[in-house]
Amino acid sequence: MIVAEHLVKEFRLTERKPGLAGSLATLFTREHRVVRAVDGVSFTIPAGAKTAYIGANGAGKSTTIKMLTGIMTPTSGRCLVRGIEPYRHRQANARGIGVVFGQRSQLWWDLSVPDSFRILRRVYDIPDAVYRRNLALYRELLDIDALGTTPVRQLSLGQRMRAEIAASLLHDPAVVFWDEPTIGLDMVLKDAVRQLVNRVHAELGTTVVLTSHDIADIAAICDSALVVDRGRVVHQGSIRDLLRTADRRSVVFDHRGRPDPGPVRAEIERGLPGVSASSAEDGRIRVDYPADRFTSRQVLGFLLDRFDLADCYAPEPDLEDVLRRIYGGHREAPSTGVPGGGEEGAA
Ligand SMILES: Nc1ncnc2c1ncn2[C@@H]1O[C@H](COP(=O)(O)OP(=O)(O)OP(=O)(O)O)[C@@H](O)[C@H]1O
């Protein structure tokens, strides 16, 4: 189980004045500004859940993951991963977790992937049977042998990410934190990574915390979502519940006996003000309605009264649309400050 209680992380930034004179002035008179990257976040992630940690750029996801993995200490509040405060007991925490940060490596830069894995095997004291089973899985799904004996620093981003993902699971951790794990992967490998994590989860009950801007990753892997906006949790629950917050819903139907969809669309838009009707695939008509003005029963009742519906279904709201609305309008101007207080250490 993972718990965050009123978790806060602030960074102190030194304000930089524009131009050369400004840079010189910064050397002598420093003005500071505090950025609250994580603003009193509280949540509980049950053991065995596959949770998407979602938020717009700069929402505080990576900072939270860094505290959960012990890389950063909270300014206030606390978090617990399997009963351990990660930043106080980094080693004990590290034994039970696997981590992928798209931007950082846990591998040895000058060593090949097999050499890095041999070191990890020793570090984590991985039993032979577990090591062999996991390598076989990575051969099957990630084609890990193809990475050969090339030093990690010479691998492409996609090749390195395959190795990072494998390394994060090598010791059968109880919890994995994956921050943008599919960066640089092609479609086939993305699918393989999704299969891999789902297989490991099914066999071992691994708790998965995933941050990703790739909606397909979230949909393929996660059953629940934590959505953060400007450092605060704005939704916690199943992905299904998140989709239910959509402000627009849809119905798609096939209308028998009316070959010309134009008048049908016009009749719907006249009869249900605020609703839009458009042509969908196979000559069907799609009706999009605002969820705060109409219930699905009202819309369906209207359609059944007037048209001969051959086929009718309600497509799931689009997760991307839901997130776009949550993120919308909250973009901040990029900071002109320089970090002055972060204590980020090595992974
Ligand atoms: N070491 C640091 N020093 C100063 N500010 C930081 C530092 N790390 C993060 N921040 C600031 O904290 C805020 C949250 O950053 P964070 O990286 O956690 O966001 P994120 O949700 O992971 O974003 P993204 O989706 O772009 O990866 C941002 O405003 C960022 O500029």
TrEMBL record:
Pfam families: ABC_tran. Coiled coil: none annotated. It is a peripheral membrane protein. Residues 22-255 form the ABC transporter domain. GO terms for molecular function: ATP binding. It is found in: Cell membrane. InterPro entries: AAA+_ATPase, ABC_transporter-like_ATP-bd, ABC_transporter-like_CS, ABC_transporter_ATP-binding, P-loop_NTPase. Its main location: membrane. Keywords: Antibiotic resistance, ATP-binding, Nucleotide-binding, Transport. The keyword Lipoprotein does not apply. This is ATP-binding cassette domain-containing protein. It comes from Streptomyces achromogenes.
